[in-house]
């Protein structure tokens, strides 16, 4: 092999490495659709998406995943409401206010939180949070929306916080200096200059945090309670989509309607996560800070 | 370039196909019901002690999971708390697998409530109405004025199917029911919830929950054996064809006196007594 061929060979080899993750993703998406789509030959798409009854193992079965979608969305929404203020404000504190030492400690603790296995958090929610919620508020069950949302929020905080912090850190020095030079206080500088300048990054962080929450399986399997009904209050149990797939996949005969329905649920989940990522991408371009040469 | 992608894709596929299929001759893989898990665990430990050098692995996942693994030939023994379904037999046959059943123990399914609950007895019909969501308050069945929180195993569980078989008779469990993923999760949930009702395999009932009588009959080892207690069932191990070699030895061990002692120790009903006391269907 002469030098030139070697060069070409290596170039393509590296291209292949770069393509591996794309190929894997492609194959996964392909099989997801291949296994899920045949369901719609027997169950109309509308009945699947908006049906209120999820009785996959009965005869005749009903495959309505609307309660599961509602469960996923509501748990994600509340988790977002909790994790966004906590995550973003923590990022602001770490990047703008905290002294160097505190900053180091906080950053590594938050990273540690990201490394906690979800089953540990789920167990925590099941054995500690659930009984506590139940006792304190005299609820019929502690395995409910609030519990699942709080645990998911804990999982989403590291994502939101660390990406937001990167965004805040990337705000050019001149912005701050200009703001202080105009006589603005530290609070005014943070609230009116730094955060708006980092808004695109922060929005991306939030979207990725939400994507993390909606796809999380173990936590919702363990603490959401698993009731496939549309909740009437925040203290009701729900059955988010990932929990349903994880709990039921074991029982489904290969390529039965139930099996296809679970894959189709996976497609819905995939589309939702994809949507969050696309929105994150769009937002980060749309609100990109302009007006400084360093950005 | 496309050739390369194709090759890579092929390689990946091959890798995923070959992984996990091969196991050595003197290793036994057991997979399936979480109800049978304590029995399998106990007997496996004793068997491995008696036969050093043998490799055994055990995992749960549910009866359906085990049978699926047997059909896919990724396990030697599938444990199950229910009989194999006709559909599963068909699928197995189509893949050249011939599932053979071995009854290894008896189990009883017991409705349980929080220890502070005043209710001590429910009829099968009351249980069915509660699980269908028609009875929603404990005062309707002689308890306090508290909402009933219905807890069930999820539908991949053999216990769920047995409950359907004994109590629900194909009626639908209310969508408001909590569906939890293991017997252990059920115990935790009920022991900490005074509103709750759930059902457990007899091996999982402990002091943290209160077992209920059914139709006035207390579930004990004796009543389960004699089938006087209405919710009694067999626990199975399935193999592909008649078991061979080490697998056969292991199953014989489970059925032996020593194995059945472990069955009793884990809180299930041993075989010999069951055969004496009641007839197998």
Question: If you had to describe this structure to a student in words, what would you say it looks like?
Answer:
The complex is a heterodimer of chains A (295) and B (281). Chain A is an all-alpha fold. Chain A contains 13 helices and two strands. Chain A has one domain: MetI-like fold (Orthogonal Bundle), CATH 1.10.3720.10. A two-stranded antiparallel sheet of chain A has the order 1-2. The model of chain A has no long low-confidence stretch (mean pLDDT 89). Chain B is of the alpha/beta class and 281 residues long. In chain B, the strands form two sheets. In chain B, strands 1, 2, 3, 4, 6, 7, 8, 9 and 11 form a nine-stranded mixed β-sheet that branches. In chain B, strands 5-10 form a two-stranded parallel ribbon. In chain B, helix 2 links the parallel strand 1 and strand 2. Chain B starts with a helix and ends with a helix. The N terminus and C terminus of chain B are likely disordered. The chains are: A mainly alpha (295), B alpha/beta (281). Chains A and B meet through helix 1, strand 1, helix 6 and helix 12 of A and helix 1, helix 3, helix 4, strand 7 and helix 7 of B.
Distance separating the two termini of chain A: 45 Å
Oligomeric nature of the chains: heterodimer
Report the CATH superfamily of chain A. Answer: MetI-like
CATH class placement of chain A? Mainly Alpha
Largest sheet of chain B: 9 strands, mixed
What does the overall shape of chain A look like? globular
Q: What integer is the average pLDDT of chain B?
A: 83
Pair of chains with the largest interface and how many residues each contributes: A-B, 45 and 40 residues
Low-confidence runs of chain A: none
State the secondary-structure class of chain B: alpha/beta
Please give the largest β-sheet of chain A.
2 strands, antiparallel
- What is the fold named in CATH at topology level of chain A? MetI-like fold
How many DSSP helices of chain A? 13
Radius of gyration of chain A using CA atoms only: 23 Å
Question: Architecture of chain A, CATH level 2?
Answer: Orthogonal Bundle
Q: Determine the fraction of residues in helical runs of chain A and give it as a percent range.
A: over 70%
Distance between the termini of chain B: 64 Å
What is the helix fraction of residues of chain B, given as a range? 25-40%
């Amino acid at each position: 092999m002469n030098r030139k061929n070697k060069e070409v060979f290596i170039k393509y080899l590296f291209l292949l490495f770069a393509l591996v993750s794309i190929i894997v993703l492609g194959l996964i998406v392909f099989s997801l659709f291949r296994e899920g789509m045949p369901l719609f030959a027997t169950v109309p798409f509308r009945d699947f998406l908006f049906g209120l009854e999820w009785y996959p193992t009965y005869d005749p079965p009903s495959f309505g995943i609307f309660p599961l979608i509602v469960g996923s969305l509501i748990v994600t929404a509340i988790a977002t409401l909790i994790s966004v203020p906590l995550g973003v404000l923590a990022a602001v504190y770490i990047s703008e206010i905290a002294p160097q030492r505190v900053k180091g400690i906080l950053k590594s603790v938050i990273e540690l939180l990201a490394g906690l296995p979800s089953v540990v958090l789920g167990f925590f929610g099941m054995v500690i949070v659930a009984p506590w919620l139940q006792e304190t508020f005299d609820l019929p069950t502690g395995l409910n929306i609030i519990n699942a949302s709080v645990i998911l929020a804990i999982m989403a905080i590291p994502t939101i916080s660390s990406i937001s912090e990167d965004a805040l850190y990337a705000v050019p020095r001149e912005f701050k200096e200009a703001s202080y030079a105009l006589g603005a206080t530290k609070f005014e500088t943070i609230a009116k200059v730094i955060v708006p300048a980092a808004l695109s990054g922060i929005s991306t962080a939030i979207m990725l945090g939400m994507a993390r929450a909606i796809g999380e399986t173990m936590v919702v399997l363990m603490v959401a309670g698993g009731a496939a009904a549309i909740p009437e209050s925040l203290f009701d149990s729900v059955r988010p989509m990932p929990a349903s797939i994880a709990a039921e996949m074991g029982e489904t005969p290969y390529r039965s309607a139930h099996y296809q329905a679970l894959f189709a649920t996976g497609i819905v989940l995939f589309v939702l996560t994809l949507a969050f990522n696309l929105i994150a991408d769009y937002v980060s371009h749309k609100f990109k800070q302009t007006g400084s040469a360093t950005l | 370039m496309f050739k390369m992608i194709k090759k890579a894709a092929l390689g990946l596929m091959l890798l995923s196909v070959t992984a996990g299929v091969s196991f050595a001759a003197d290793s036994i893989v057991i997979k399936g019901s979480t109800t049978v898990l304590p029995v399998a665990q106990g007997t496996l430990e004793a068997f491995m002690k008696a036969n050093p050098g043998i490799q055994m692995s055990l995992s749960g996942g549910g009866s359906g999971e085990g049978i699926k693994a047997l059909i896919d030939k990724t396990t030697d023994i599938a444990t199950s708390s229910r009989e194999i379904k006709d559909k599963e037999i068909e699928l197995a046959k189509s893949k050249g697998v011939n599932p053979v059943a071995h009854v290894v123990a008896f189990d009883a399914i017991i409705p349980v409530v929080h220890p502070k609950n005043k209710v001590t007895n429910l009829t099968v019909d009351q249980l069915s109405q509660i699980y269908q969501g028609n009875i929603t308050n404990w005062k309707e069945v002689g308890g306090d004025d508290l909402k009933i929180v219905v807890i069930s195993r999820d539908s991949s569980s053999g216990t769920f199917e047995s409950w359907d078989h004994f109590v629900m008779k194909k009626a639908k469990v209310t969508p408001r029911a909590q569906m939890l993923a293991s017997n252990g999760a059920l115990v935790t949930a009920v022991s900490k919830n005074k509103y709750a009702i759930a059902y457990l395999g007899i091996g999982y009932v402990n002091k943290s929950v209160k077992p209920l009588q059914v139709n006035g009959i207390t579930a004990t080892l004796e009543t389960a054996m004699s089938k006087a207690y209405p919710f009694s069932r067999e626990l199975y191990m399935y193999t592909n064809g008649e078991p061979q070699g080490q697998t056969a030895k292991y199953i014989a061990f489970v059925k032996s006196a020593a194995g059945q002692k472990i069955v009793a120790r884990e809180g299930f009903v041993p075989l010999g007594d069951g055969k004496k006391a009641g007839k197998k269907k």
